[in-house]
Specification:
- The structure is a single chain.
- Helix 8 packs antiparallel against helix 10 (179-194).
- The chain has 260 residues and is mainly alpha-helical.
- Strands 1-2-3 form a 3-stranded antiparallel β-sheet, with no helix packed on it.
- The protein is built from 14 helices and 3 strands.
- The chain is elongated, with a radius of gyration of 21 Å.
- It has helices spanning 2-10, 20-23, 26-37, 42-59, 66-78, 85-88, 92-104, 114-131, 136-140, 179-194, 196-200, 220-235, 241-245, 251-258; strands spanning 148-150, 155-159, 170-173.
């Protein structure tokens, strides 16, 4: 229910004096489901709506929530099987080299072009995630000067225990092989994207490493879509960020990449 309320708030639909019945309506549920489908798997959408059903029944047990239960059941029945990980997985080194190729083919003679800057950034995202497979939430939140820090000779990726899902601190060296790419990105391509904030009048990226086409901090959903779009075009199957972490079938292949 809290997740649903958060969505209502972001959509400008949350009113303090509304009852549960007024908040959970068929029209709103349609919009909520559309939103959920854009960020999570179909099977997870059914589970999430099912949790909303349970909350509604607990909060308002005398109300007939059969329409909501029916919608949840239909979503679960229609959900396609989860994506085949084995079909989508690629060797870590292959992803790493692909990311470098994407950067190498961003037009170096047109460093004021937003599309070229976005391409270079996408390549750095893929190569870095392949070599340092952080959880996507931490990866998306990399901030220059804090989680991406310079010690005078090397860059480091650093997150405190409170910033990670497992409660374990992260302090890993930035891959030496990618350092020249990172510095090129920071000096040129990233600035092209940051300047877009003046054009669109949105929230500037400030210290955030990843920047969207409007000059704002890149959202997790946009980062996911970027990774999936580029990998699908290259490999024929979209590779979602979690697969960069699922290394059980490719650890030997990935070792070379992680020690660069």
């Amino acid at each position: 229910y809290g997740r649903y309320l958060a969505w209502l708030d972001r959509a400008g639909l949350l009113l303090e004096d509304q009852s549960v019945v007024e908040r959970i309506t068929p029209d709103r549920l349609v919009a909520y489901v559309t939103y959920l489908k854009s960020i999570i798997a179909p099977s997870s959408v059914g589970v999430t709506v099912g949790a909303l059903v349970a909350a509604a029944k607990a909060l308002e047990p005398d109300i007939d929530w059969s329409w909501l239960s029916l919608r949840s059941s239909r979503l679960k029945l229609k959900a396609k099987p989860s994506r085949d990980k084995r079909h989508a997985m690629r060797p870590t080194l292959e992803l790493y080299e692909f990311g470098k190729h994407v950067m190498d083919t961003a037009d170096p003679g047109n460093r004021k072009n937003v599309l070229a800057a976005l391409r270079y950034q996408a390549g750095l995202v893929i190569a870095l995630l392949a070599s340092r497979p952080l959880r996507i939430r931490n990866f998306q939140a990399i901030t220059i000067g804090t989680s991406l820090r310079w010690d005078g000779s090397h860059y480091w990726l650093t997150f405190s225990a409170g910033e990670t899902k497992t409660g374990g601190a992260i302090d890993e060296p930035f891959p030496n092989d990618l350092t020249p790419y990172l510095e090129t990105f920071l000096r040129t391509w990233r600035l092209v994207l940051v300047r877009q904030a003046d054009k669109f009048g949105g929230e500037p990226a400030y210290g955030r490493l990843w920047v969207d086409r409007a000059g704002a901090p890149m959202k997790e959903h946009t980062l996911r879509l970027t990774i999936e779009r580029y990998t699908e075009k290259e490999f024929g199957t979209a590779i979602w960020p979690h697969l960069f972490r699922d290394r059980s079938e490719e650890r030997r292949v990935g070792t070379e990449c992680r020690h660069r």
